[in-house]
Write a structure and sequence with these properties.
This protein has 253 residues and is α/β, with parallel strands linked by helices. It has one domain: Rossmann fold (3-Layer(aba) Sandwich), CATH 3.40.50.720. The protein is built from six helices and seven strands. The protein has a seven-stranded parallel beta sheet with strand order 3-2-1-4-5-6-7, with helices on both faces. Helix 1 packs across helix 6 and helix 4 packs parallel to helix 5. The longest helix is centred in the middle third of the chain and has 29 residues. It is globular and about 50 Å long. The protein starts with 8 loop residues before the first strand and ends in a 14-residue tail after the last strand. The protein binds NADP nicotinamide-adenine-dinucleotide phosphate. The site of NADP nicotinamide-adenine-dinucleotide phosphate has 28 residues, from helix 1 and helix 4. NADP nicotinamide-adenine-dinucleotide phosphate binds next to helix 1 and helix 4.
């Protein structure tokens, strides 16, 4: 702990588990106050206790919300600002995925992935980015994916949602950098989390999951992006497990 983020307020979406949870703990270890949000209140409450137990002085606020819903994001904004006054670092992390072909994927799958991955990103950025521009200080960090960099067989809808985030982040950076607001995209390959279990994309008992990155590896990248010296910004961090090729599937027979 270097206390590099003491005095800063970070809001992390999808913080009930996985990468978001690890990012919240890592940012709090650096001294940031954290607002943690997702739908599962019990998991957020446990995380708040864990942040307090770090004894870094970091306070944590849990705000249960379905981030696909504008009203929930409005309430999230109101509660975060009432408690901490401002949000300095926004981590757009909440996300879901399901694999399949065009024949098997449904319009419900489209809405689920696009709304959770992109609409939540839009709503949260719209809620917190303008004040960063006004203050001439802040950071918006995206947890994108290798699926936001290249089309991957069987991932058309997940690809679409992650490419959408990538284009949004690139365009946002033009609005941000001249106002001293950093935009950073972190694009991991496989990370061993709950991701893909709900949709049946991944099997929790698959031994290959152990070769994936851990949430804490991605959380370290979030802290790195959030702690850059004043004159620079990291726009893109690509991360892969050692066993995964740069192009997923490459080299497989
Ligand atoms: P995870 O363990 O399944 O966590 C996903 C998080 O998103 C949970 O906290 C979940 O909380 C939240 N969430 C889902 N729907 C939501 C909604 N409607 N409103 C608010 N929160 C919602 O998966 P993860 O791997 O940590 O995923 C985090 C991000 O990493 C995603 O954007 C994913 O695309 C990206 N990513 C993951 C991998 C990977 O291999 N795991 C690789 C590259 C990128 P609740 O269910 O409590 O709402």
């Amino acid at each position: 702990m270097t206390g590099k983020l003491t005095g800063k307020v970070a809001l992390i979406t999808g913080a009930s588990r996985g990468i978001g949870r690890a990012a919240a703990l890592a940012l709090a270890k650096e001294g940031a106050q954290v607002v943690v949000t997702a739908r599962t209140k019990a998991d957020l409450d446990t995380l708040v206790k864990e942040v307090k137990a770090l004894k870094t002085g970091a306070k944590a606020l849990a705000v249960p919300a379905d981030l696909r819903k504008e009203k929930d994001v409005d309430k999230l904004k109101a509660k975060a600002l009432a408690t901490f006054g401002q949000v300095d670092i926004l981590v757009n992390n909440a996300g879901v995925g399901k694999a399949g072909t065009i024949a098997t994927l449904t319009t419900e799958d489209y809405d689920w992935m696009m709304d959770t991955n992109m609409r939540s990103t839009w709503l949260c950025t719209k809620a917190f980015f303008p004040a960063m521009v006004e203050r001439q200080d802040g950071a918006v960090i995206f947890i994108g994916s290798v699926a936001g960099l290249m089309g991957i067989p069987g991932e058309a809808l997940y690809n679409a949602s992650k490419f959408a985030q990538m284009g949004f982040a690139q365009a946002l950076d033009y609005e941000a950098h001249q106002h001293n607001v950093r935009v950073s995209m972190i694009a991991p390959g496989g990370v061993h989390t709950h991701f893909g279990f709900e949709s049946g994309w991944r099997d929790p008992s698959d031994a290959k999951l152990k070769e994936f990155l851990d949430s804490e590896d991605v959380a370290d990248a979030v802290v790195f992006a959030a702690t850059q010296p004043p004159k620079g910004r990291i726009f893109m961090i690509g991360m892969r497990p050692m066993r995964e090729a740069l192009t997923p599937g490459a080299g497989k027979k």
